Amino acid sequence: MPTLLLSPAVHRDFAEELRAAAGPGLQFVCVDPAQPPSAQQLQEVDIALVSLDVIGQSTRTVLTPYMQLFCDSMRAAPGLQWMHVPSAGVDRPVFQALMRRGVRVTNSSGANAEAVAHTAIMGVMVLARGGLHWMHAQREHRWAPLRGPEAQADLSGQVAIVVGHGPIGRHIARLLEALGLRVHKLRHTPQPGDAALGIHGYDALRALAAEAHWLVIACPLTDATRRLVDAQVLAALPRGACIVNVGRGGVLDEDALLAALASGYIAGAHLDVFEQEPLPADSPFWDLPNVLVSPHNAGSSRQYRERSVRMFIDNLRRWVQGDALRQEVETDRTLRTASPP
């Protein structure tokens, strides 16, 4: 029977379900700051469940003390074979290091897709309907309607590009289409029949940009997407286009975006993710009047942790039975065929 590394909170809330999935012989090693696991306990660990309470307020590179302790425990477990993470992205250095060591990784892609999509649509609506203008006017106690030539254009009939066609990107695309936009969807590897559905490869981005009012980034950070949205892509967009990024900061050339926003060529942006997180207090993004900044919080919801843990529980049952794991991440960040569509 396997031995599972997990947080005390998940042990408290899900121990019975975990044992029901794996069998009564499942052993637990809790990473408790008051009594960290011993080297002998870590020798027995086969599986690690990185839950949202482990991540806490950590960013990609700045870890809370508890996240650091959990990461150190995983590194010190020589028999670790499989790790489940609560995010879709696996670009955190510790995850990458364990993958290079041969540890299998499954992610929680889809667990917060609806929340991220709703946040992205919030960004679109704030930018499209004058929300930033009204926020600034409210702070100044100023009655400032947008009428006549200053009124916002209708969203219906506009064109959007959604970069990323996983659960988040698909949900964003559906919501944009429901608002009357025509949507181009981009993904890493196009499939037969994709073109008829408006789905293209990443290499189509620059050509499609010329007709896009909106560029929504909802893809992971990989070698294929790093700096995918660069100065040339931004320049290919029509003047007055807007950007929403709920994917990863490294997908977007931030210096190029700053210049385009400051000049007014890009009309506005909602940015939830950045190359450096937390975003430094002296970053120009904070003070640009045409930018909405949110603190990598697009996917937050009260149900997110439970959905992520239940994805793991389903895979734990598969692990014990010797079946293929769902949403297993390859070293090139593609998902195995056992993943749901």
Structural class: alpha/beta
Q: What global shape is seen?
A: elongated
Secondary-structure element sequence?
EHEHEHHEHEHHEHEEHEHEHEEHE
Count of distinct strands: 13
The biggest beta sheet reads:
7 strands, parallel
**CATH architecture level-2 label of the largest domain:** 3-Layer(aba) Sandwich
Question: What percentage of residues falls in helices of 4 or more residues?
Answer: 25-40%
What is the CA-atom radius of gyration, in angstroms? Answer: 22 Å
> Regarding CATH, which class of the largest domain?
Alpha Beta
Instruction: Estimate the strand proportion.
Output: 5-15%
Count helical runs. 12
| Number of spatially distinct domains | 2
N-to-C terminal Cα separation, in Å?
31 Å
CATH homology-level superfamily of the largest domain: NAD(P)-binding Rossmann-like Domain
By CATH, the topology of the largest domain is: Rossmann fold
Mean pLDDT: 95
Widest sheet: strand ordering: 8-7-6-9-10-11-12
Low-confidence stretches: 333-341
Task: Give a short overview.
The protein is built from twelve helices and 13 strands. It has helices spanning 8-22, 39-43, 52-55, 65-75, 93-100, 113-128, 131-139, 167-178, 205-209, 231-236, 254-263, 304-321, and strands at 3-6, 27-30, 47-49, 82-84, 104-106, 159-163, 182-187, 199-201, 214-217, 241-245, 266-271, 291-293, 328-329. The strands form two sheets. Strands 8-7-6-9-10-11-12 form a seven-stranded parallel β-sheet. The chain has a six-stranded mixed β-sheet with strand order 2-1-3-4-5-13.
